[in-house]
Fold:
Amino acid sequence: MKRLIPFLLVLLGIAPLSSTPRQGQIKAGTNVGAQEVRLALPTFESKSADPNAVRLTALFNQVLRDDLDYSGNIALISPSFYPLGKFQVPTDIKVEDWTKPSVNAQYLVFGSADLSGGTLRFEARLWDLGVVENRELLGYRFTSGALTDDAVRLTAHTFADQIVDKLFGGRIGIARTRIAYVSVSSNNIKETIKEINVMDYDGANSAPLTTYRSISIMPAWSPDSDKVAFISFRSKTPQLEIMSVLDRRPLSFPSMAGTANSPAWSPDGSRIAFASSKSGNFELYASDWNGKNMQQITVSPKSIEVSPSWNPKTGQSIVFVSDRSGTQQLYIMNADGTNPERIIDEGGDAEYPSWSPDGQNIVFSWLRNKTDGHYNVYIHDLVSGRNTQLTGATQDQGQNERPSWSPDGRHIVFASNRTGVSQIYTMLANGQKVRQLTRNGRNEGPAWSAFGK
Amino acid sequence: MKNKVLLFCVLLLAACHGKTAATTPPPPPLPPATPPAPAPAISLRANPVTIERGAPVTLQWEAKNAATVRIEPGVGDVGMTGSRDVTPTSSVTYIATATGPDGLSATDTARITVNAPAAPSEQPIVNRITPQPGIDQLFGSNVQTIYFDYDRSEIRSDQMARLQANADWLKQNPNVRFTIEGHCDERGSEEYNLALGDRRANAVKQFMASQGIPETRINVISYGEEHPVCREETEDCMAHNRRAEFVLNAQGGN
Structure:
């Protein structure tokens, strides 16, 4: 895909400005938002007056600001508190203007952009204002691969991830992750078409993955982010299909009798769990991702079993939905199907479970109260057993469904029809900073990629 | 004939010649015999050979070695070659005769078929036969959609009569292969609904099988909540979406 080329060029175009980077001073706790660093981010100026350079530099500033703001542990100080002046090179910086109580910045990110040989070249630095010497934690010269929005966005995302890594002890940033989702188009009610698209984690650069003009739903990313498994009706009955993301090439998976449903990759990427009615009723199965070594892992002939999700930390257990009790509830079993146990004793209907990267929590969609009629996003803490409501707690926010975790375990993507039509949203895992990613048409069923590509 | 008699006499006299002295001069030689006249020939063509009554036909003939040519019926003596338009009122065979100078003759014929349109009073009685409805129309009017309660896949008691009628018709039409589609309203997860639709379709299939319809005639597919018939968030709309639909398969296929 087109994204890879500017990324490679950016990699080639990163040149450190200083040679003594220091270790980050802040370790992130497991509580999102508990430890915030105060960071000042004055605008990067464009040295060139070329209108395109000016516009793209403004885009860089906006994307970098949004990325840092969304990371969850960075409090961006409002520019209204900044000292006046230009802040492009180290000699522009008077530290006490930034550390004085009215600004109170712990970190400073600054730099400039210049047009150079058909690309935009950025000088960018991260300073630790709390030390007297060796303030520069990061100093880079980034060269955007092209004079395009895509390339400049990627440059900003790359720098943002570097900052998160540096500030939070090697934590991997999510600014270059992506979200797969279902885009719905229908000319009339008889011709609903659902395709799987992929967009940046902030909603930009949406592009189609499937173009079958059929119903393609339930995307699931492989752990290396190279492949997406999904369910497609293009062969008439719903079948499990796999597509490579980079070149949009279908990869082979055997067609099966009955209806295939809700695929989920094992954390090492070797296996896929899914639901199927091929034996007559819905059970869970797992196979190698090419379909070999297929095993039935649940045996519950009178009930429906769907929506598996593996424990990403251990790969040893699977959470899923079953109506064996009469209503839809969440169960956890060993990956071989033994010892299924219900995890929430309250009633209602629980759906779409997704296991957090650290193995500690399940995010899911819950119709907690049937008379209430609303599905909301909840987090179930596996250690304490507590359920925390993330949507619809203080106001009606419609139906909120198919939540899943970002690979850093600090964010959740989900679909909500709170504006009247289903759209894709992200938020922090504490429910804050809700961000709407799609605005046009009807969009649903999202899944967050892993790190990497 | 005269020539032969004459020849005979000459031969007799010649045979007697040696005995008598020349007393009478021989008669003058007979003129050489003329070859017989060539036989007459005639060809008769008609165009067209089939007409509606009242339309003209062109007869065309060509005769050789004939003294006279005559075409009957109704035409009479004609020249050696020629054409004549005729308008026979009923089917007829024309005969052309060419007669040579020594009385020999030749003939040729042409048959004309005359079709007479029926008089109005002779029109056949036309009774319109009602066209047979196609099997797809019959299927559509006899095999009806079955509806379900929220979150349930059991056959509702108020749907049983309709389901039974479906089964009865399908048994009476053993060549019909069909698909049962399971559908849901939009509430709940897409994933659970895909399974619930499957369950509904299979519940209907099981009933059909229990009525003696072979499972080889029945396909099942679930569309979950993907193919609603309406989108309003009303109870009425959602009730219409919770259904098992019957679809006729292409004949001869699966």
Q: What stands out?
A: Chain A has two domains: 4-167, 178-448. Chain A has four helices and 31 strands. The first strand of chain A starts at residue 15 and ends at 16.
